[in-house]
Write a structure and sequence with these properties.
This protein is an alpha+beta fold. The two termini are about 35 Å apart. The protein is about 40% helix and about 20% strand. A four-stranded antiparallel β-sheet has the order 8-11-9-10. Strands 2-1-3 form a three-stranded mixed β-sheet. The chain has a two-stranded antiparallel ribbon with strand order 4-5. The chain folds into four domains: about 60 residues, MutS, DNA mismatch repair protein, domain I (3-Layer(aba) Sandwich), CATH 3.40.1170; about 100 residues, Reverse transcriptase/Diguanylate cyclase domain (Alpha-Beta Plaits), CATH 3.30.70; about 50 residues, DNA polymerase, domain 1; about 160 residues, DNA polymerase, Y-family, little finger domain (Dna Ligase, domain 1), CATH 3.30.1490.100.
């Protein structure tokens, strides 16, 4: 979706069509630009700019704080249109997704006609523009989505179909950041090694990439050669019953405990596992619940609505800690703890619209490090002492209920 949040604001208010729109906050408030319309971008206001600077550059632009409920509702409507073409939908964020269109090709004369039909449906029903890239793999489709007719990187309102042969031919000339999961920081690290294009990356041995970047390095070695085995994962389309309702992680102790430091540490570890799964599924939680069971089998639980939907343990921990202190009222041993994320909705990149982005950046960085080097490559102060009670394994701690606590 093109400048999704700003485009939704323009769709809601037709008077804003063709005018610069800036989502993030009202003029005079602290914060950054979360999304700017293409009209604003052309006039020098990109994502991430301070609102004060954006106002200085474009005092006549339309500034809005934004409403997550409206944006989620529009994204659901977009997914409903996707669902009319295929049930094979993998939402990536609130403005992006992969579709496996193999099953509906016979309804159209050409693949391009199929793509145009999808674009037209979104435009006519929601008054939103989108860019569509069609190819043989997810990586090539993503590249196609950014291409113009002359193979130049041009995203807005495009429709590009590229064959596998054409994709393989252009791959060596593309910037290395076109490889999946290579962001700005990794691009800078690769540039220090003299790797600027995919062609440069093709010259780096697999073992060197693995040594430098872990499992990701091995994936990049294949991607650089056009090998992408990733399938479209069945996502949470509205037509198939909506997204997963809850995600929980819990464990029962071998011996009951009254050690609050141990209980708090275990609770944080369970929260880490919940949030890791949320990020894996590209979801955020609107409510969080904590439950415990005492040694006499009596139990207590409570839940809290979060100020902003989140999938970062750094954001959610304060609520989890407060819930634990509220429900742990007896001076007897605890034998079971659990954390449950509820009111789930699709995650999206522009999370800074609703909260600080630092906890999310930290969580994503931890995921990357631990995916390559294991959970214990980086300890947190809250969980480092759990090794005294649980056996350490590569992906964390071996709890008594691993099926619920992985």
């Amino acid at each position: 979706m093109n400048a999704f949040l700003a485009s939704v604001e323009q769709a809601l208010n037709p008077d804003l069509a063709g005018k610069p729109v800036i989502v993030g906050g009202e003029p005079g408030t602290r914060g950054i630009v979360i999304c700017s319309s293409y009209e604003a971008r052309r006039l020098g206001v990109p994502f991430g700019m301070a609102l004060a600077e954006a106002y200085r550059r474009l005092p006549n632009a339309h500034f809005v704080k934004g409403d997550i409920k409206i944006y989620i509702d529009y994204w659901h409507k977009v997914q409903e249109i996707f669902d009319e073409y295929t049930p094979q939908i993998e939402p990536v964020s609130m403005d992006e997704g992969y579709l496996d269109l193999t099953g509906c090709r016979n309804r159209f004369k050409t693949v391009r006609e199929l793509g145009q039909s999808l674009k037209d449906a979104i435009r006519e029903r929601l008054n939103l523009r989108c860019s569509i890239g069609i190819s043989t793999t997810k990586m090539f489709a993503k590249i196609a989505c950014r291409l113009g007719p002359a193979d130049n990187m041009r995203k807005p309102d495009g429709l590009t179909v590229i064959s596998e042969a054409r994709a393989l031919a252009m791959l060596p000339t593309l910037p290395v950041r076109q490889i999946p999961n290579i962001g700005h920081k990794t691009e800078a690290m690769l540039a220090e090694l003299g790797v600027h294009t995919v062609g440069d990356l093709q010259k780096v041995p697999r073992e060197v990439l693995v040594e430098l970047f872990g499992v990701r390095g091995s994936e990049w070695y294949d991607f650089a050669r056009g090998i992408d085995r990733r399938e479209v994962k069945l996502g949470q389309s509205p037509g198939s019953g909506g997204h997963q309702k809850t995600i929980s992680r819990e464990t029962t102790f071998n011996a009951d405990s009254v050690d609050k430091d141990f209980l708090r540490g275990t609770l944080y570890y369970l929260l880490e596992r919940v949030c890791q799964k949320l990020r894996e599924l590209n979801l955020v939680a609107g409510r969080i619940a904590v439950n415990l069971r005492y040694v006499d089998y009596s139990s207590a639980d409570d839940a809290r609505t979060l100020d902003f939907p989140s999938n970062a343990e750094g954001e959610i921990h304060e609520a989890v800690s407060a819930l634990f202190e509220k429900i742990y009222t007896r001076k007897v041993g605890v034998r079971h703890l659990g954390v449950t994320a509820m009111s789930l909705s699709p995650a999206f990149r522009q999370v800074a619209l609703f909260a600080s982005e630092k906890p999310f950046d930290l969580a994503r960085s931890l995921d990357k490090v631990r995916s390559g080097l294991g959970y214990h490559a980086i300890y947190t102060g809250r969980t480092w002492h759990l090794g005294k009670n649980f056996r350490e394994v590569v992906d964390g701690y071996e709890l008594r209920t691993p099926s619920l606590s992985q």
